[in-house]
């Protein structure tokens, strides 16, 4: 099974005064930028000692630590490294079990090839974190989390096809159609899409049927003619970003809140939170596409430029795009929306928002 290794996630700390003031409401969080996961074998993952991973405290300056201890001596840090490692591992195991190698073998090989090829697993972890935030158990949200990742993988397989972006590299490996052919790649994506809904309906346990039906409806809306698919068709930048990337991120968070038993007010707060980080995710993605290498990204760099896509760097230039991303209130707005929730349970979502804002691939 392909799994994930965080390596050394945490980089130097740099946040605005605005974010710093908001983070005081969440004493368990030390908001930091993070580096993404890299793929590694499951055998390596099993040997990782969680306590040996670099803690958030280890990258703060001595002055930072002293100031924080003076403000709150009892403050306990949130170990985002271990959290993401554990959650990504749990998601990978669930995906491995859900899409087993069975007849017809060829199509299941193709499904598993892309689904288990690694990736940051941000969307399923967001789903699990949202479920926990409203008081749900991880087991309640895992089928929904896996379904979101299946649909995300489907979108990548189809995006890479010659009739779409015509790409040869995804997650550091040859794209699905390069390995299995265009016909099988199309069918593998279709199969993942269909199975995502089956998996939620059949595998979700401990959740009232009404919540499951609501979750299925949310997911269908997120990826339909007004959601992910619309974003793949339309060439208007904000429409693309809100309806393609943000739509699936929103679905991941909202599904977690629904199956976890969140009230309508909590679900809508988390919906707005997800929209903020979803737009920010795509702005950062646009910038990385023209500033990082293919090796760093794990996919073909600069393809948006070659395809003459409407992106922020194309409209504003790279430097202006970076400034725009830094000035966006999306991050601070997202964090503000989590005020009122249990700070300890909100810490993973805030850390994920920070990761999205400061990721390097």
From TrEMBL:
Q: Name one GO molecular function term.
A: geranylgeranyl diphosphate synthase activity
Entry-linked PROSITE patterns = POLYPRENYL_SYNTHASE_1, POLYPRENYL_SYNTHASE_2
Q: In which pathway does it act?
A: Isoprenoid biosynthesis; geranylgeranyl diphosphate biosynthesis; geranylgeranyl diphosphate from farnesyl diphosphate and isopentenyl diphosphate: step 1/1; Isoprenoid biosynthesis; geranyl diphosphate biosynthesis; geranyl diphosphate from dimethylallyl diphosphate and isopentenyl diphosphate: step 1/1; Isoprenoid biosynthesis; farnesyl diphosphate biosynthesis; farnesyl diphosphate from geranyl diphosphate and isopentenyl diphosphate: step 1/1
Q: Output the InterPro entries linked to this UniProt entry.
A: Isoprenoid_synthase_dom_sf, Polyprenyl_synt, Polyprenyl_synt_CS, Prenyl_diphosphate_synthase
Source domain of life is Eukaryota
Its BP terms in the Gene Ontology are:
carotenoid biosynthetic process
UniProt entry keywords in alphabetical sequence: Carotenoid biosynthesis, Isoprene biosynthesis, Magnesium, Metal-binding, Transferase
Q: Which GO terms describe its cellular component?
A: cytoplasm
Instruction: Tell me the NCBIfam families matching this sequence.
Output: FPPsyn (NF045485)
- Tell me which family the UniProt entry assigns to this protein: Belongs to the FPP/GGPP synthase family.
**The name this protein goes by in its record:** Geranylgeranyl pyrophosphate synthase
Per the UniProt record, the source organism is Gossypium barbadense (Sea Island cotton)
């Amino acid at each position: 099974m392909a799994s994930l290794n965080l390596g050394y996630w945490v980089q130097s700390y740099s946040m605005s005064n605005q974010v710093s003031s908001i983070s005081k409401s969440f004493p368990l969080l030390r908001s930091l930028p993070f580096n993404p996961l890299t793929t590694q074998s499951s055998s390596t993952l099993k040997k990782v000692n969680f306590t040996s991973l670099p803690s958030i405290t280890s990258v703060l300056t001595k002055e930072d630590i002293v100031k924080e201890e003076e403000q709150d001596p009892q403050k306990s840090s949130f170990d985002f490294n271990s959290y993401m490692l554990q959650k990504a591992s749990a998601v990978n195991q669930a995906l491995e079990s859900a899409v087993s190698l069975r007849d017809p073998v060829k199509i299941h090989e193709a499904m598993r090839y892309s689904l288990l090829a690694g990736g940051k697993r941000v969307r399923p972890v967001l789903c699990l974190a949202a479920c926990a935030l409203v008081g749900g158990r991880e087991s309640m949200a895992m089928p929904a989390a896996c379904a979101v990742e299946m649909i995300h993988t489907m979108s990548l397989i189809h995006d890479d096809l010659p009739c779409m972006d015509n790409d040869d590299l995804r997650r550091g490996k040859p794209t699905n159609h390069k390995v299995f052919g265009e016909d099988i790649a199309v069918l593998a994506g279709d199969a993942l899409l269909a199975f995502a809904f089956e998996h939620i309906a059949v595998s979700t346990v401990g959740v009232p049927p009404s919540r499951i039906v609501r979750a299925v409806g949310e997911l269908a809306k997120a990826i339909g003619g007004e959601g992910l698919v619309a974003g793949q068709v339309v060439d208007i930048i904000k429409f693309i970003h809100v309806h393609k990337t943000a739509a699936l991120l929103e679905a991941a968070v909202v599904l977690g809140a629904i199956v976890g038993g969140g009230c309508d007010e909590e679900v809508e707060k988390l919906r707005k939170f997800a929209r903020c980080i979803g737009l920010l995710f795509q702005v950062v993605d646009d910038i990385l596409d023209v500033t990082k290498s293919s090796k760093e990204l794990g996919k073909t760099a600069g393809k948006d430029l070659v395809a003459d896509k409407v992106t922020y760097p194309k409209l504003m230039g790279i430097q202006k795009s970076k400034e725009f991303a830094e000035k966006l209130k999306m991050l601070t707005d997202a964090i503000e929306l989590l005020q009122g929730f249990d700070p300890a349970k909100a810490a993973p979502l805030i850390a994920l928002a920070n990761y999205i804002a400061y990721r390097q691939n």
